[in-house]
Backbone:
């Protein structure tokens, strides 16, 4: 091809590599809260009060301890979901990060539980989306309710577990948050390379939410919130998107 020399090809490859490297560096800097002059300021920390229009907060999934004033001191949350009996009839706690494989594993624990699980009190910083969807569907099929207590958290993939509850109760002061899903340590390069898979995954989540009776418009907040931040849903939004069930009668 005329005008195409080895030097130009090598220069083009080098420029491409430098560009990708710059994206990766900026992504890691952003994840650590660093902003260059002129960049959007970092979101406030999770512990700061939330007001309408000011709902995005810095989010680090490795920080397992609830940032709020919890109804009880849970300490550090487990690295994968754990199921424990509360001693109140058929109420059990399900808390911790959602690790790959937790869907099938926890379904087995629920089916073997005695007394039978009627309600799950949730607390999780999120994790594997596929496992959250799998477990959420099981909760709905089994007629198991979900519940959240004051000061406890349900972030990232956890709201899909919450949505799966046949009955859903969220105490005032509980914290529910959504954001873009994680695609590895750096969120830029995987998204650039695997856009098709990412879009397919987001589509599966929206289909799931509609199946569960949740307004898929909640995803508008998730898709516009970077994965190193979390969008905290206000009580009126939890009602608007049907996360809270209303008792008849």
Residues:
């Amino acid at each position: 091809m005329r005008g195409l020399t080895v030097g130009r090809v090598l220069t083009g490859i080098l420029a491409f590599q430098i560009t990708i490297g710059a994206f990766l560096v900026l992504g890691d800097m952003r994840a650590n809260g660093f902003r260059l002059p002129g960049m959007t300021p970092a979101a406030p920390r999770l512990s700061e009060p939330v007001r309408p229009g000011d709902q995005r907060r810095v989010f680090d999934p490795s920080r397992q301890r609830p940032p709020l004033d919890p109804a009880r001191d849970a300490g550090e949350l487990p690295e994968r979901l754990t199921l424990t009996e509360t001693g109140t009839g058929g109420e059990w706690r399900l808390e911790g990060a959602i690790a790959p494989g937790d869907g099938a594993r926890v379904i087995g624990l629920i089916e073997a539980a005695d007394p039978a699980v009627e309600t799950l009190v949730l607390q999780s910083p999120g994790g594997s989306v596929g496992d959250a969807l799998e477990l959420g569907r099981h909760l709905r099929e089994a007629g198991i309710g979900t519940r959240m207590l004051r000061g406890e958290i349900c972030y990232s993939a956890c709201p899909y577990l919450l949505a799966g509850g046949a009955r859903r109760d969220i105490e005032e002061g509980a914290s529910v948050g959504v954001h873009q899903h994680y695609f590895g340590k750096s969120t830029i390069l995987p998204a650039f390379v695997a856009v098709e898979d990412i879009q397919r995954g987001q589509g599966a989540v929206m289909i799931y939410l509609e199946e569960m009776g949740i307004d898929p418009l909640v995803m508008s907040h998730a898709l516009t919130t970077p994965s190193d931040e979390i969008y905290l849903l206000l009580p009126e939004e939890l009602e608007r998107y049907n996360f809270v069930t209303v008792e008849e009668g």
